[in-house]
Write a structure and sequence with these properties.
Immunoglobulin-like; alpha/beta; 458 residues; binds ligand G2I; TIM Barrel; eight-stranded parallel β-barrel; 32% helix; 2 domains; 22 strands
Amino acid sequence: MAAVSALTAATVALVGLAAPAHAADPVLRDLAAAKGIYYGTAVTSSKLSGTYGAVTGAQFDSITPANEMKWGTVEPNRGSFNWAGADRVVDFAEANGQQVRGHTLVWHSQMPNWLANGSFSNTELRTIMTDHVTTEVTRYKGRIDHWDVVNEPLNEDGTMRGSKFYNQLGESYIADAFRAARAADPAAKLYINDYNTDGTGPKSNGMYSLVQRLKAQGVPIDGVGFQGHLILGQVPATLQANLQRFADLGVEVAITELDIRMTLPATDAKLAQQKTEFKAVTNACLAVARCEGVTVWGFTDSDSWIPDVFPGEGAATPYDAGFQPKPAYYGIAEALGWTGDGGGGDPTPTTGCAVTYAVQSQWNTGFTANVTVRNTGTSPVNGWTLRWTWPSGQSVTQAWNATVTQSGAQATAVNAAHNAAIAPGGSATFGFNGAWSGGNTAPGAFTLNGAACAVALS
Ligand code: G2I
């Protein structure tokens, strides 16, 4: 075990060294603040150190504990509390000048077993619920900016979900939860939060009516959270109009759990589309005056719920699993007004490339190689030609995912139709079979559209 731990530590340290390579990258929290919104991320408290912690602190001005404030976590046994993870998140936020979205007080899921499986009279259940709200909100009084007081109260058709609370207490459980939260921390903004309410439709109509009813009863509700668990290619066209109609009811709105999942593998085309869609969602919030901010549900693909719940899908967040920004990150930055210059005033996008050349197999006269071209600049590559010179008389005999020709010692690879576009941060890969005799030394230099690339051999 000790050896495994040491290895893990070494890996983490290496990742930590790699991250500052993007020194000129935009800072989302600063861009968002200049536009009058916050940009947040859900976090896992146990990961808030190293590169994960550094990116969380540097890029976001709001954090949401993904699990640490849920009832099942904070009160696993009746009357015995575990605040360790929640405390860690709130402390981290304060150390980094961030707001906290408290998530979540009353929810049908992730309840402790004693509550989910216990039988209580209606009066008892109501008291258990309001006591829970009071205890948790009081503990963090003055330190939580927004609370998701009630989470996911609706069915897909817009009717009330038959949760333990609804089934026993009726709709009034919602009013009681909000009143208890307001009494415990009058300064916190109190939200109701749900998924699949992002565009107009039966479920968001149900939320709209519910909020109207709550407002009519004088229930202290400040905002509506739209989770934004979206699927690539299916961002609702009505998102902005939907946010606006809720704002017009007299509540704040926020995108609270944004991710945009895709069928794996992620290709450059999908990542480019995802960039457009993260940008569009951010723009929708910016276009609605009462939209307070956007929270992504995990900022890195290494900390996302999607692969566990949707096998074969993923890549749903703005950073890859190695903490490198994906095109989606630049899409968010662009929506927030970034012009590709890191805020320095020079609007010229940067260009750059890195090539990885790897011989996959080699036999007496031939070999197979894979080449990956990464766009390390800030502007998209639309069509590419990669050139290199063979050091020891090799030649290309057959290629895939690119057309490769050779003249003398110089090889020229031109993109295929499907990998012509390489978004910033994205890459294209092609392969070929080659012939060699005498030696098979790897090429030491490549140019992409005439500009020299960094080279990594593997
Ligand atoms: O399901 C996605 C989100 C939908 N809206 C409400 C959010 O609270 C919810 O978040 C997810 C977390 O991101 C997951 O991390 O809620 C899940 C539970 O419904 C969380 O998953 C749970 C796993 O189911 C547990 O097995 C695991 O022990 O995470 C726990 C902690 O890692």
